[in-house]
Inverse folding.
């Protein structure tokens, strides 16, 4: 029996089910009541909280609780990334949460880049600490003193370690779940090599892995490239990134980064090795990271006015089975459900039967739609007897039907089709939203149209400062995202920078950004 709606004394709607009565007050906040196109920020807040990804942590502003549904998505990403890292020879390790003030301040540009974000511990119990201790914003200065002790010979290289941990970055404006928070989960890899070429090769390998994680798992297309020197990681020789685009918000977003540190940190922390010729050399280093920000990007890109839309490869549950019970037919329905479960016992498909008998089928439909489960199978008495089952796609609400004998094959094929279609649709959107500009008028027009501007630029710091000032004067806050690899050899349409009279040296991607 489906839920029925009644109006009672013009006050509250009653949702009547066979076993329980819910009032509108009891279910307030259950679904999404803001349109994505009308108020993107409020829509996003509702999706991540009401779909069960996170909850707010009221004791400390900017901190969030990652709930089981959200953590399960992170586990799918973590599992895949961990396998890819280990294939490349990376090992997992765990280093302390704390770093001394002396160690953190050894690399000047590094601490300057993080100074505003570092949280300091100055007191333990009722005793003031003689020297403040920082809570890690990242682990370079924690790990590299150990690397200096461990690495002696070329035989100790390469050393490639990864941590799955959380970091704290305190100072920021406008906290946003998954996108900007004071503490977040991530992986941070730190590698050491004997040669520059080995290190630079790894930078690109890790970036490629991140691109694959976004595109092949999250079905989110990204743009790989190099950060301009003014946007590189503090203390790096250069930074590479994959950049995403949230078309409904008209904003770019840094999705993940891979940094070449050169010999900067190895010289500071004396990370040296003895070569085959018995000479001593400083090592070459990288660091690279991918965080739970990825979950927020996925929710922003794929979500709709009903809630989350999960790509099958990261969905904690890929298929939900809803038994539709009528008095006198319960046994045949549950027998059919058990047969379906048995079909998928040896399959990699993550299937769940919703046996919550106190909830109506209609309530369950809305619940799993909100959570973004890719496929739903309805099993009533007729379906059980005919052994023919309707399957509803979360992405389109389209219904298909499969016989019991073909059900497993149909489900597996449909999940792959959903994954592929999500990526193809978003790639088409991304391509549509990247516009080539050659002058300031075109540049401002594209940005005000909430798209990304691919501009030929001189790269001068004075020009960058003037672009920033001009955009602020017109209340259009923008930044350059990266220098896309794809357009490295793209011919210039004319010789000058889009913003000044200097010669253009590169194509760079500009946009409003999170």
């Amino acid at each position: 029996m489906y839920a029925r709606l009644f109006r009672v004394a013009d006050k509250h709607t009653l949702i009547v089910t066979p076993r329980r009565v819910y009032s509108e007050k009891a279910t307030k906040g259950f679904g999404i009541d803001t349109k994505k196109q009308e108020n993107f920020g409020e829509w996003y807040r509702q999706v991540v909280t009401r779909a069960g990804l996170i909850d707010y942590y009221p004791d400390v502003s900017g901190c969030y609780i990652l709930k089981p549904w959200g953590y399960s998505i992170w586990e799918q990403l973590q599992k895949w990334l961990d396998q890819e890292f280990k294939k490349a020879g990376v090992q997992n390790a765990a280093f302390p949460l704390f770093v001394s003030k002396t160690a953190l301040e050894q690399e000047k540009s590094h601490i300057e880049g993080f100074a505003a974000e570092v949280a300091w511990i100055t007191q333990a119990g009722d005793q003031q600490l003689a020297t403040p201790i920082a809570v890690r914003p990242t682990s370079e200065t924690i790990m590299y003193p150990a690397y200096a002790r461990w690495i002696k010979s070329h035989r100790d290289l390469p050393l490639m370690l990864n941590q799955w941990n959380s970091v704290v970055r305190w100072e920021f404006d406008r906290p946003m779940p998954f996108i900007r928070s004071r503490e977040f989960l991530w992986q941070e890899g730190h590698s050491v090599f004997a040669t520059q070429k080995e290190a630079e090769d790894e930078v690109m390998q890790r970036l490629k892995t991140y691109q694959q994680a976004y595109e092949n798992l999250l079905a989110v297309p990204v743009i790989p490239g190099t950060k301009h020197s003014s946007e590189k990681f503090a203390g790096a020789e250069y930074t590479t990134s994959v950049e995403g685009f949230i078309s409904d918000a008209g904003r770019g977003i840094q999705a993940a980064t891979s940094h070449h540190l050169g010999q900067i940190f190895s010289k500071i922390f004396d990370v040296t090795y003895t070569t085959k010729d018995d000479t001593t050399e400083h090592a070459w280093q990288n660091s690279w990271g991918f965080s739970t920000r990825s979950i927020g990007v996925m929710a922003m890109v794929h979500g709709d006015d009903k809630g989350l839309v999960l790509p099958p490869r990261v969905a904690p549950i890929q298929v939900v089975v809803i038994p539709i019970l009528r008095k006198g037919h319960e046994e045949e329905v549950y027998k059919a459900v058990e047969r379906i479960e048995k079909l998928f016992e040896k399959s990699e498909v993550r299937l769940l039967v919703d046996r919550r008998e106190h909830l109506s089928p209609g309530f369950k439909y809305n619940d799993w739609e909100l959570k973004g489960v890719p496929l739903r199978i309805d099993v009533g008495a007729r379906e059980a007897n005919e052994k023919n089952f309707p399957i509803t796609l979360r992405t389109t609400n389209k219904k298909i039907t499969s016989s019991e004998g073909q059900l497993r094959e149909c489900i597996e094929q449909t999940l792959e089709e959903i994954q592929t279609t999500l990526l193809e649709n978003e790639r088409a959107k991304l391509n549509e939203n990247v516009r080539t500009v050659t002058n300031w008028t075109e540049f401002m027009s594209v940005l005000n149209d909430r798209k990304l501007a691919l501009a030929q630029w001189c790269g001068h710091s004075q020009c960058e400062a003037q672009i920033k000032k001009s955009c602020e004067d017109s209340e259009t806050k923008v930044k350059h995202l990266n220098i896309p690899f794809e357009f490295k050899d793209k011919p210039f349409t004319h010789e000058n920078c889009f913003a000044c009279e200097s010669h253009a040296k590169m194509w760079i991607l500009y946009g409003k950004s999170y």
User: Anything to note?
Assistant: Residues 407-433 form the longest helix (27 residues). Residues 99 and 134 are 5 Å apart (CA to CA). The chain has a mean pLDDT of 92. The radius of gyration is 26 Å.
